Amino acid sequence: RILILDFGSQVTQLIARRVRESGVYCEIWPFSTDAARIRAFAPRGIILSGGPASVLDENAPRIPDVVFALNVPVLGICYGQQAMCFQLGGAVETHAHREFGRAHVDIVEDCALFRGTWTRGGREQVWMSHGDRVTKLPPGFRAVAVSEGAPYAIIADEGRRMYGVQFHPEVVHTPHGAALLRNFTHGVVGCQGTWTMAGFRDMEIARIRQQVGSGRVICGLSGGVDSSVAAVLIHEAIGDQLTCIFVDPGILRAGEAEEVVKTFRGRFNIKLIHRDASDLFLSALEGVTDPEVKRKTIGRLFVEVFEEEAAKLGGAEFLAQGTLYPDVIESVSFTGGPSVTIKSHHNVGGLPERMKMQLVEPLRELFKDEVRELGRELGIPEAIVGRHPFPGPGLAIRIPGAIDRDKLALLRQVDTVFLEEIRGAGLYDAIWQAFAVLLPVRTVGVMGDGRTYDYACALRAVTSTDGMTADVYPFDIGFLNRVASRIVNEVRGINRVTYDITSKPPGTIEWE
Ligand code: XMP
Question: For the residues of 215-243, what is the DSSP string, one character each?
Fold first, then answer.
Protein backbone atom coordinates (compact mmCIF):
# COMPACT_ATOMS: atom_id res chain seq x y z
CA ARG A 1 0.00 0.00 0.00
CA ILE A 2 0.89 3.59 -0.62
CA LEU A 3 0.90 6.47 1.83
CA ILE A 4 0.04 9.94 0.58
CA LEU A 5 1.31 12.69 2.84
CA ASP A 6 -0.85 15.76 2.51
CA PHE A 7 0.64 19.25 2.48
CA GLY A 8 -2.73 20.92 2.00
CA SER A 9 -3.24 20.87 -1.75
CA GLN A 10 -6.81 21.28 -3.04
CA VAL A 11 -6.32 18.19 -5.17
CA THR A 12 -4.68 15.71 -2.79
CA GLN A 13 -7.77 13.50 -2.90
CA LEU A 14 -7.32 13.14 -6.64
CA ILE A 15 -3.93 11.51 -6.08
CA ALA A 16 -5.66 8.87 -3.98
CA ARG A 17 -8.36 8.45 -6.62
CA ARG A 18 -5.79 7.82 -9.36
CA VAL A 19 -3.78 5.40 -7.23
CA ARG A 20 -6.85 3.41 -6.27
CA GLU A 21 -8.11 3.35 -9.84
CA SER A 22 -4.93 1.53 -10.70
CA GLY A 23 -5.85 -1.15 -8.16
CA VAL A 24 -3.54 -0.03 -5.37
CA TYR A 25 -4.78 0.72 -1.87
CA CYS A 26 -3.67 4.04 -0.38
CA GLU A 27 -4.48 6.44 2.42
CA ILE A 28 -4.03 10.18 2.88
CA TRP A 29 -2.49 11.42 6.11
CA PRO A 30 -1.36 14.91 7.18
CA PHE A 31 2.35 15.67 6.76
CA SER A 32 2.51 16.18 10.53
CA THR A 33 1.60 12.57 11.31
CA ASP A 34 4.03 11.14 13.83
CA ALA A 35 6.80 8.87 12.71
CA ALA A 36 5.71 5.82 14.69
CA ARG A 37 2.31 5.82 12.99
CA ILE A 38 3.89 6.08 9.57
CA ARG A 39 6.23 3.19 10.34
CA ALA A 40 3.35 1.07 11.62
CA PHE A 41 1.43 1.66 8.39
CA ALA A 42 4.44 0.19 6.57
CA PRO A 43 3.85 1.89 3.23
CA ARG A 44 5.61 0.36 0.23
CA GLY A 45 5.86 3.78 -1.35
CA ILE A 46 5.14 7.38 -0.36
CA ILE A 47 3.68 10.24 -2.38
CA LEU A 48 4.13 13.81 -1.14
CA SER A 49 1.28 16.07 -2.21
CA GLY A 50 1.33 19.67 -3.35
CA GLY A 51 0.42 22.47 -0.99
CA PRO A 52 -0.10 26.22 -0.73
CA ALA A 53 2.95 27.04 1.42
CA SER A 54 6.41 28.10 0.28
CA VAL A 55 9.34 26.01 1.52
CA LEU A 56 11.14 29.32 2.01
CA ASP A 57 8.71 30.40 4.72
CA GLU A 58 9.94 30.05 8.23
CA ASN A 59 7.09 27.84 9.36
CA ALA A 60 6.77 25.87 6.14
CA PRO A 61 5.67 22.27 6.56
CA ARG A 62 8.54 19.79 6.45
CA ILE A 63 8.70 16.22 5.24
CA PRO A 64 9.13 14.03 8.34
CA ASP A 65 12.56 12.34 8.45
CA VAL A 66 10.95 8.93 8.65
CA VAL A 67 9.96 9.30 4.98
CA PHE A 68 13.61 9.17 3.97
CA ALA A 69 14.58 6.66 6.65
CA LEU A 70 12.11 4.03 5.47
CA ASN A 71 14.05 3.46 2.27
CA VAL A 72 10.91 3.13 0.16
CA PRO A 73 10.29 4.89 -3.16
CA VAL A 74 9.15 8.52 -2.82
CA LEU A 75 7.37 10.72 -5.36
CA GLY A 76 7.10 14.44 -4.60
CA ILE A 77 4.44 16.44 -6.41
CA CYS A 78 4.79 20.24 -6.70
CA TYR A 79 5.31 21.40 -3.08
CA GLY A 80 6.30 17.82 -2.30
CA GLN A 81 9.06 18.02 -4.90
CA GLN A 82 10.25 21.40 -3.67
CA ALA A 83 10.31 20.30 -0.03
CA MET A 84 12.17 17.13 -0.96
CA CYS A 85 14.84 19.06 -2.85
CA PHE A 86 15.11 21.69 -0.16
CA GLN A 87 15.52 19.15 2.62
CA LEU A 88 17.98 16.95 0.72
CA GLY A 89 20.41 19.75 -0.09
CA GLY A 90 19.04 21.41 -3.24
CA ALA A 91 17.70 24.94 -3.58
CA VAL A 92 14.28 26.49 -4.19
CA GLU A 93 13.48 30.03 -5.24
CA THR A 94 10.44 32.17 -5.72
CA HIS A 95 10.54 33.11 -9.37
CA ALA A 96 8.94 35.81 -11.45
CA HIS A 97 7.86 33.28 -14.08
CA ARG A 98 4.96 31.68 -12.29
CA GLU A 99 3.12 28.89 -14.10
CA PHE A 100 -0.59 28.40 -13.64
CA GLY A 101 -2.66 26.15 -15.82
CA ARG A 102 -1.71 24.32 -18.98
CA ALA A 103 1.97 24.00 -19.75
CA HIS A 104 4.29 21.69 -21.64
CA VAL A 105 7.28 19.70 -20.54
CA ASP A 106 10.04 18.45 -22.81
CA ILE A 107 11.31 14.98 -22.01
CA VAL A 108 15.09 15.07 -22.11
CA GLU A 109 16.02 11.70 -20.62
CA ASP A 110 14.54 8.26 -20.05
CA CYS A 111 13.12 7.49 -16.64
CA ALA A 112 11.24 4.68 -14.91
CA LEU A 113 8.19 6.96 -14.59
CA PHE A 114 7.83 7.12 -18.37
CA ARG A 115 7.59 3.44 -19.27
CA GLY A 116 5.10 2.80 -22.03
CA THR A 117 3.93 6.41 -22.23
CA TRP A 118 6.43 9.23 -22.44
CA THR A 119 9.49 9.06 -24.62
CA ARG A 120 12.72 10.98 -24.77
CA GLY A 121 12.49 13.91 -27.15
CA GLY A 122 8.72 14.09 -26.69
CA ARG A 123 6.63 16.98 -25.44
CA GLU A 124 3.79 16.43 -22.96
CA GLN A 125 0.93 18.57 -21.82
CA VAL A 126 0.78 19.02 -18.04
CA TRP A 127 -1.02 21.12 -15.46
CA MET A 128 1.13 23.49 -13.44
CA SER A 129 0.30 25.63 -10.46
CA HIS A 130 3.37 26.99 -8.76
CA GLY A 131 5.14 30.18 -7.77
CA ASP A 132 8.29 28.61 -6.33
CA ARG A 133 10.54 26.25 -8.23
CA VAL A 134 13.60 24.12 -7.70
CA THR A 135 16.78 25.85 -8.87
CA LYS A 136 19.45 23.40 -7.72
CA LEU A 137 19.12 19.65 -7.48
CA PRO A 138 20.22 17.74 -4.40
CA PRO A 139 23.13 15.33 -4.93
CA GLY A 140 22.10 12.14 -6.73
CA PHE A 141 19.23 13.69 -8.72
CA ARG A 142 19.10 14.45 -12.43
CA ALA A 143 16.55 16.37 -14.50
CA VAL A 144 14.60 14.20 -16.93
CA ALA A 145 12.14 16.82 -18.18
CA VAL A 146 12.11 20.60 -18.40
CA SER A 147 9.44 23.23 -18.92
CA GLU A 148 9.60 26.89 -19.77
CA GLY A 149 9.09 27.92 -16.16
CA ALA A 150 10.78 24.99 -14.44
CA PRO A 151 14.22 23.69 -15.38
CA TYR A 152 13.54 20.71 -13.15
CA ALA A 153 10.00 19.79 -14.22
CA ILE A 154 10.65 16.11 -13.55
CA ILE A 155 13.60 14.85 -11.54
CA ALA A 156 14.83 11.40 -10.62
CA ASP A 157 17.32 9.77 -8.32
CA GLU A 158 17.03 6.21 -9.48
CA GLY A 159 19.53 4.90 -6.94
CA ARG A 160 17.39 6.00 -4.00
CA ARG A 161 14.17 5.58 -6.00
CA MET A 162 13.14 9.18 -5.40
CA TYR A 163 11.25 11.21 -7.97
CA GLY A 164 9.77 14.67 -8.17
CA VAL A 165 7.40 16.44 -10.55
CA GLN A 166 6.69 20.15 -10.56
CA PHE A 167 3.26 19.70 -12.19
CA HIS A 168 0.13 17.85 -11.06
CA PRO A 169 -0.12 14.38 -12.63
CA GLU A 170 -3.30 13.67 -10.63
CA VAL A 171 -5.55 16.14 -12.48
CA VAL A 172 -7.24 15.32 -15.78
CA HIS A 173 -5.57 18.32 -17.41
CA THR A 174 -2.37 16.29 -17.39
CA PRO A 175 -3.53 13.72 -19.95
CA HIS A 176 -0.88 11.09 -19.21
CA GLY A 177 -0.62 11.87 -15.52
CA ALA A 178 -2.43 8.70 -14.45
CA ALA A 179 0.05 6.61 -16.44
CA LEU A 180 2.92 8.39 -14.75
CA LEU A 181 1.47 7.66 -11.30
CA ARG A 182 0.88 4.08 -12.32
CA ASN A 183 4.49 3.75 -13.39
CA PHE A 184 5.44 4.92 -9.93
CA THR A 185 3.13 2.59 -7.99
CA HIS A 186 3.41 -0.47 -10.25
CA GLY A 187 6.79 -0.01 -11.90
CA VAL A 188 8.95 1.63 -9.24
CA VAL A 189 7.20 0.45 -6.08
CA GLY A 190 6.18 -2.90 -7.55
CA CYS A 191 2.50 -2.98 -6.53
CA GLN A 192 0.41 -5.61 -8.27
CA GLY A 193 -2.81 -3.65 -8.65
CA THR A 194 -5.02 -6.31 -7.11
CA TRP A 195 -7.17 -4.01 -5.00
CA THR A 196 -10.65 -4.40 -6.51
CA MET A 197 -14.20 -3.84 -5.34
CA ALA A 198 -14.91 -7.57 -5.37
CA GLY A 199 -11.90 -8.07 -3.11
CA PHE A 200 -12.95 -5.19 -0.89
CA ARG A 201 -16.44 -6.67 -0.54
CA ASP A 202 -15.09 -10.01 0.71
CA MET A 203 -12.58 -8.40 3.03
CA GLU A 204 -15.18 -6.05 4.48
CA ILE A 205 -17.73 -8.81 5.02
CA ALA A 206 -15.17 -10.77 7.01
CA ARG A 207 -14.31 -7.65 8.99
CA ILE A 208 -17.97 -6.90 9.80
CA ARG A 209 -18.54 -10.48 10.97
CA GLN A 210 -15.53 -10.28 13.19
CA GLN A 211 -16.49 -6.93 14.67
CA VAL A 212 -20.15 -7.73 15.26
CA GLY A 213 -19.99 -11.37 16.30
CA SER A 214 -23.49 -12.35 17.34
CA GLY A 215 -24.44 -8.74 18.23
CA ARG A 216 -27.28 -6.74 16.76
CA VAL A 217 -26.84 -3.83 14.39
CA ILE A 218 -29.26 -1.06 13.50
CA CYS A 219 -28.86 1.13 10.50
CA GLY A 220 -30.63 4.34 9.55
CA LEU A 221 -31.71 4.10 5.94
CA SER A 222 -32.41 7.23 3.93
CA GLY A 223 -32.69 5.86 0.42
CA GLY A 224 -29.46 7.61 -0.54
CA VAL A 225 -26.46 5.81 -1.97
CA ASP A 226 -24.28 5.60 1.13
CA SER A 227 -26.73 4.21 3.66
CA SER A 228 -28.15 1.83 1.03
CA VAL A 229 -24.79 0.33 0.16
CA ALA A 230 -23.79 0.10 3.82
CA ALA A 231 -27.05 -1.69 4.65
CA VAL A 232 -26.83 -4.23 1.84
CA LEU A 233 -23.18 -5.00 2.60
CA ILE A 234 -23.84 -5.47 6.31
CA HIS A 235 -26.87 -7.60 5.53
CA GLU A 236 -24.73 -9.79 3.34
CA ALA A 237 -22.34 -10.22 6.26
CA ILE A 238 -24.73 -10.83 9.15
CA GLY A 239 -28.24 -11.30 7.68
CA ASP A 240 -31.03 -10.81 10.19
CA GLN A 241 -28.78 -9.49 12.92
CA LEU A 242 -29.27 -6.22 11.00
CA THR A 243 -32.42 -4.12 11.28
CA CYS A 244 -32.82 -0.99 9.19
CA ILE A 245 -34.86 1.95 10.38
CA PHE A 246 -36.29 4.20 7.70
CA VAL A 247 -37.72 7.41 9.10
CA ASP A 248 -39.98 9.01 6.49
CA PRO A 249 -40.08 12.70 7.40
CA GLY A 250 -42.74 13.60 4.81
CA ILE A 251 -40.32 15.80 2.90
CA LEU A 252 -39.04 13.26 0.38
CA ARG A 253 -39.63 13.36 -3.37
CA ALA A 254 -42.49 11.66 -5.14
CA GLY A 255 -42.49 7.87 -4.78
CA GLU A 256 -39.25 7.78 -2.82
CA ALA A 257 -40.50 6.22 0.40
CA GLU A 258 -42.33 3.46 -1.46
CA GLU A 259 -39.23 2.70 -3.49
CA VAL A 260 -37.03 2.38 -0.42
CA VAL A 261 -39.44 -0.04 1.22
CA LYS A 262 -39.91 -2.07 -1.96
CA THR A 263 -36.20 -2.34 -2.67
CA PHE A 264 -34.97 -3.23 0.77
CA ARG A 265 -37.78 -5.45 1.95
CA GLY A 266 -38.70 -6.93 -1.39
CA ARG A 267 -35.48 -7.28 -3.24
CA PHE A 268 -32.95 -7.69 -0.47
CA ASN A 269 -35.14 -9.21 2.21
CA ILE A 270 -33.72 -6.88 4.82
CA LYS A 271 -35.60 -6.36 8.10
CA LEU A 272 -36.90 -2.83 7.72
CA ILE A 273 -38.91 -0.64 10.03
CA HIS A 274 -40.75 2.02 8.06
CA ARG A 275 -41.86 4.83 10.31
CA ASP A 276 -44.08 7.39 8.65
CA ALA A 277 -43.28 10.45 10.73
CA SER A 278 -44.66 13.01 8.31
CA ASP A 279 -47.31 14.37 10.71
CA LEU A 280 -44.73 14.92 13.40
CA PHE A 281 -42.23 16.61 11.07
CA LEU A 282 -44.76 18.77 9.24
CA SER A 283 -46.46 20.01 12.37
CA ALA A 284 -43.10 20.89 13.93
CA LEU A 285 -42.20 22.79 10.77
CA GLU A 286 -45.48 24.66 10.56
CA GLY A 287 -44.85 28.38 10.20
CA VAL A 288 -41.07 27.96 10.39
CA THR A 289 -39.40 30.24 7.85
CA ASP A 290 -35.81 30.48 9.02
CA PRO A 291 -33.62 27.98 7.11
CA GLU A 292 -31.40 27.21 10.09
CA VAL A 293 -34.41 26.59 12.32
CA LYS A 294 -35.82 24.24 9.68
CA ARG A 295 -32.56 22.31 9.52
CA LYS A 296 -32.16 22.07 13.28
CA THR A 297 -35.78 21.04 13.79
CA ILE A 298 -35.47 18.29 11.20
CA GLY A 299 -32.13 17.08 12.55
CA ARG A 300 -33.47 16.91 16.08
CA LEU A 301 -36.62 15.05 15.06
CA PHE A 302 -34.66 12.51 13.02
CA VAL A 303 -32.61 11.64 16.06
CA GLU A 304 -35.64 11.50 18.36
CA VAL A 305 -37.70 9.28 16.08
CA PHE A 306 -34.74 7.05 15.34
CA GLU A 307 -34.08 6.59 19.05
CA GLU A 308 -37.71 5.84 19.69
CA GLU A 309 -37.75 3.10 17.07
CA ALA A 310 -34.43 1.69 18.26
CA ALA A 311 -35.79 1.55 21.80
CA LYS A 312 -38.85 -0.37 20.58
CA LEU A 313 -36.47 -2.94 19.16
CA GLY A 314 -34.94 -3.36 22.57
CA GLY A 315 -31.74 -1.64 21.48
CA ALA A 316 -28.67 -3.03 19.77
CA GLU A 317 -24.95 -3.04 20.39
CA PHE A 318 -23.97 -1.52 17.06
CA LEU A 319 -25.00 1.42 14.92
CA ALA A 320 -24.18 1.32 11.22
CA GLN A 321 -23.31 4.50 9.35
CA GLY A 322 -22.44 5.19 5.74
CA THR A 323 -19.47 7.41 6.61
CA LEU A 324 -17.19 7.96 3.60
CA TYR A 325 -13.46 8.50 3.32
CA PRO A 326 -13.63 12.25 2.64
CA ASP A 327 -15.35 12.62 6.05
CA VAL A 328 -12.54 10.88 7.90
CA ILE A 329 -9.48 12.33 6.17
CA GLU A 330 -7.77 14.55 8.69
CA SER A 331 -7.61 17.83 6.89
CA VAL A 332 -4.55 20.01 6.67
CA SER A 333 -5.44 23.65 7.00
CA PHE A 334 -3.24 26.69 6.73
CA THR A 335 -5.94 29.26 7.12
CA GLY A 336 -6.25 28.90 10.89
CA GLY A 337 -9.22 30.18 12.81
CA PRO A 338 -12.69 28.74 12.78
CA SER A 339 -14.52 28.73 9.48
CA VAL A 340 -17.92 30.32 9.20
CA THR A 341 -21.00 28.12 9.31
CA ILE A 342 -22.79 28.67 6.03
CA LYS A 343 -25.37 25.98 6.70
CA SER A 344 -25.58 23.43 9.46
CA HIS A 345 -25.67 20.26 7.42
CA HIS A 346 -27.90 17.67 8.84
CA ASN A 347 -26.76 14.12 9.33
CA VAL A 348 -27.17 11.68 12.17
CA GLY A 349 -23.85 12.73 13.70
CA GLY A 350 -24.13 12.87 17.46
CA LEU A 351 -26.28 9.76 17.54
CA PRO A 352 -23.53 7.29 18.48
CA GLU A 353 -22.44 9.34 21.51
CA ARG A 354 -26.01 9.66 22.71
CA MET A 355 -26.91 6.06 22.11
CA LYS A 356 -23.69 4.61 23.51
CA MET A 357 -23.36 2.21 20.63
CA GLN A 358 -20.32 1.05 18.75
CA LEU A 359 -20.08 2.15 15.16
CA VAL A 360 -19.99 -0.10 12.13
CA GLU A 361 -18.74 1.98 9.21
CA PRO A 362 -17.94 -0.32 6.31
CA LEU A 363 -17.47 2.50 3.79
CA ARG A 364 -15.10 4.67 5.76
CA GLU A 365 -12.22 3.88 3.42
CA LEU A 366 -14.09 4.56 0.20
CA PHE A 367 -14.68 7.54 -2.05
CA LYS A 368 -18.18 8.22 -3.38
CA ASP A 369 -17.62 6.68 -6.79
CA GLU A 370 -16.08 3.60 -5.17
CA VAL A 371 -19.22 3.28 -3.05
CA ARG A 372 -21.25 3.35 -6.26
CA GLU A 373 -19.05 0.65 -7.76
CA LEU A 374 -19.44 -1.46 -4.62
CA GLY A 375 -23.21 -0.94 -4.79
CA ARG A 376 -23.26 -2.27 -8.35
CA GLU A 377 -21.10 -5.19 -7.25
CA LEU A 378 -23.75 -5.92 -4.59
CA GLY A 379 -26.57 -5.81 -7.13
CA ILE A 380 -28.21 -2.62 -5.91
CA PRO A 381 -30.39 -1.11 -8.66
CA GLU A 382 -28.89 1.67 -10.74
CA ALA A 383 -31.75 3.96 -9.69
CA ILE A 384 -30.29 3.99 -6.18
CA VAL A 385 -26.60 3.57 -6.93
CA GLY A 386 -26.47 6.35 -9.51
CA ARG A 387 -28.80 8.71 -7.68
CA HIS A 388 -28.03 12.39 -7.27
CA PRO A 389 -27.30 13.54 -3.71
CA PHE A 390 -30.38 14.57 -1.75
CA PRO A 391 -30.07 16.66 1.41
CA GLY A 392 -31.23 15.36 4.78
CA PRO A 393 -33.69 18.27 5.25
CA GLY A 394 -35.18 17.27 1.91
CA LEU A 395 -37.81 19.36 0.17
CA ALA A 396 -38.17 21.55 3.26
CA ILE A 397 -35.12 23.54 2.16
CA ARG A 398 -36.38 23.72 -1.42
CA ILE A 399 -39.40 25.77 -0.42
CA PRO A 400 -38.14 29.11 0.89
CA GLY A 401 -40.43 30.32 3.68
CA ALA A 402 -42.98 28.20 5.50
CA ILE A 403 -43.82 24.78 4.10
CA ASP A 404 -47.10 22.90 4.05
CA ARG A 405 -48.54 19.80 2.40
CA ASP A 406 -49.97 21.72 -0.58
CA LYS A 407 -46.65 23.33 -1.41
CA LEU A 408 -44.86 20.01 -1.01
CA ALA A 409 -47.31 18.38 -3.42
CA LEU A 410 -46.75 21.14 -5.99
CA LEU A 411 -42.99 20.90 -5.70
CA ARG A 412 -43.05 17.11 -6.07
CA GLN A 413 -44.91 17.44 -9.36
CA VAL A 414 -42.50 20.03 -10.73
CA ASP A 415 -39.50 18.01 -9.63
CA THR A 416 -40.87 14.87 -11.25
CA VAL A 417 -41.39 16.55 -14.63
CA PHE A 418 -37.93 18.12 -14.57
CA LEU A 419 -36.23 14.84 -13.74
CA GLU A 420 -38.27 12.89 -16.25
CA GLU A 421 -37.10 15.25 -18.97
CA ILE A 422 -33.49 15.08 -17.80
CA ARG A 423 -33.55 11.28 -17.81
CA GLY A 424 -35.34 11.25 -21.15
CA ALA A 425 -32.64 13.42 -22.67
CA GLY A 426 -29.95 11.11 -21.27
CA LEU A 427 -28.48 13.89 -19.14
CA TYR A 428 -28.98 12.49 -15.63
CA ASP A 429 -25.48 11.08 -15.21
CA ALA A 430 -23.81 14.19 -16.59
CA ILE A 431 -25.37 16.28 -13.82
CA TRP A 432 -24.30 16.27 -10.17
CA GLN A 433 -27.67 17.39 -8.88
CA ALA A 434 -30.89 18.59 -10.51
CA PHE A 435 -34.00 19.67 -8.67
CA ALA A 436 -36.80 22.21 -8.49
CA VAL A 437 -37.42 24.95 -5.94
CA LEU A 438 -40.90 26.29 -5.20
CA LEU A 439 -40.71 30.06 -4.87
CA PRO A 440 -42.87 31.82 -2.31
CA VAL A 441 -44.11 34.34 -4.86
CA ARG A 442 -47.13 34.46 -7.10
CA THR A 443 -46.98 36.10 -10.47
CA VAL A 444 -49.49 36.97 -13.16
CA GLY A 445 -49.77 34.89 -16.30
CA VAL A 446 -52.15 34.24 -19.14
CA MET A 447 -53.44 30.82 -20.13
CA GLY A 448 -55.98 30.47 -22.90
CA ASP A 449 -58.03 33.63 -22.53
CA GLY A 450 -57.75 33.80 -18.79
CA ARG A 451 -55.54 35.48 -16.28
CA THR A 452 -53.60 33.29 -13.85
CA TYR A 453 -52.06 34.27 -10.55
CA ASP A 454 -49.96 31.33 -9.46
CA TYR A 455 -46.64 30.29 -7.97
CA ALA A 456 -43.30 30.56 -9.73
CA CYS A 457 -40.69 27.84 -9.52
CA ALA A 458 -36.96 27.68 -10.16
CA LEU A 459 -35.04 24.81 -11.70
CA ARG A 460 -31.47 24.12 -10.68
CA ALA A 461 -28.93 21.76 -12.22
CA VAL A 462 -25.23 21.80 -11.48
CA THR A 463 -22.07 19.89 -12.20
CA SER A 464 -19.60 19.33 -9.38
CA THR A 465 -17.12 16.79 -8.12
CA ASP A 466 -17.68 17.08 -4.41
CA GLY A 467 -20.44 19.63 -3.83
CA MET A 468 -17.92 22.19 -2.57
CA THR A 469 -17.95 24.14 -5.80
CA ALA A 470 -20.43 23.86 -8.63
CA ASP A 471 -21.07 25.08 -12.14
CA VAL A 472 -24.43 25.58 -13.75
CA TYR A 473 -25.36 22.85 -16.22
CA PRO A 474 -25.57 24.44 -19.69
CA PHE A 475 -28.89 23.08 -20.97
CA ASP A 476 -29.78 24.17 -24.43
CA ILE A 477 -32.68 26.56 -24.59
CA GLY A 478 -34.86 24.10 -26.49
CA PHE A 479 -34.63 21.67 -23.58
CA LEU A 480 -35.50 24.38 -21.06
CA ASN A 481 -38.43 25.54 -23.18
CA ARG A 482 -39.80 22.02 -23.30
CA VAL A 483 -39.49 21.53 -19.54
CA ALA A 484 -41.07 24.92 -18.81
CA SER A 485 -43.98 24.29 -21.09
CA ARG A 486 -44.64 20.85 -19.60
CA ILE A 487 -44.52 22.23 -16.06
CA VAL A 488 -46.90 25.10 -16.71
CA ASN A 489 -49.28 22.87 -18.62
CA GLU A 490 -49.21 19.88 -16.31
CA VAL A 491 -48.77 21.31 -12.83
CA ARG A 492 -51.78 23.31 -11.77
CA GLY A 493 -50.71 26.13 -9.53
CA ILE A 494 -47.45 26.98 -11.32
CA ASN A 495 -47.45 29.57 -14.09
CA ARG A 496 -43.82 30.61 -14.31
CA VAL A 497 -40.53 28.73 -14.56
CA THR A 498 -37.05 30.19 -14.08
CA TYR A 499 -33.62 28.58 -14.41
CA ASP A 500 -31.08 29.37 -11.70
CA ILE A 501 -27.78 30.27 -13.36
CA THR A 502 -25.71 30.97 -10.24
CA SER A 503 -22.52 29.01 -9.74
CA LYS A 504 -21.17 28.01 -6.31
CA PRO A 505 -19.59 30.14 -5.02
CA PRO A 506 -21.15 32.67 -4.74
CA GLY A 507 -24.43 30.74 -4.62
CA THR A 508 -24.86 27.50 -2.73
CA ILE A 509 -26.37 24.47 -4.43
CA GLU A 510 -29.52 24.40 -2.30
CA TRP A 511 -31.50 27.60 -1.87
CA GLU A 512 -31.60 27.43 1.91
P1 XMP B 1 -24.91 23.56 -0.51
O2 XMP B 1 -26.35 23.96 -0.59
O3 XMP B 1 -24.31 23.82 0.84
O4 XMP B 1 -24.92 22.00 -0.67
O5 XMP B 1 -24.10 24.11 -1.63
C6 XMP B 1 -23.78 21.20 -0.95
C7 XMP B 1 -24.23 19.77 -1.04
O8 XMP B 1 -24.71 19.32 0.23
C9 XMP B 1 -26.07 18.92 0.15
N10 XMP B 1 -26.70 19.37 1.37
C11 XMP B 1 -26.98 18.57 2.41
N12 XMP B 1 -26.80 17.24 2.56
N13 XMP B 1 -27.73 17.39 4.69
C14 XMP B 1 -27.20 16.66 3.71
O15 XMP B 1 -27.11 15.44 3.87
C16 XMP B 1 -27.91 18.73 4.62
O17 XMP B 1 -28.39 19.36 5.54
C18 XMP B 1 -27.53 19.34 3.39
N19 XMP B 1 -27.58 20.62 2.95
C20 XMP B 1 -27.07 20.61 1.70
C21 XMP B 1 -26.59 19.60 -1.08
O22 XMP B 1 -27.73 18.91 -1.61
C23 XMP B 1 -25.40 19.55 -1.98
O24 XMP B 1 -25.23 18.27 -2.55
Answer: --EEEE--SSHHHHHHHHHHHHHHGGGEE
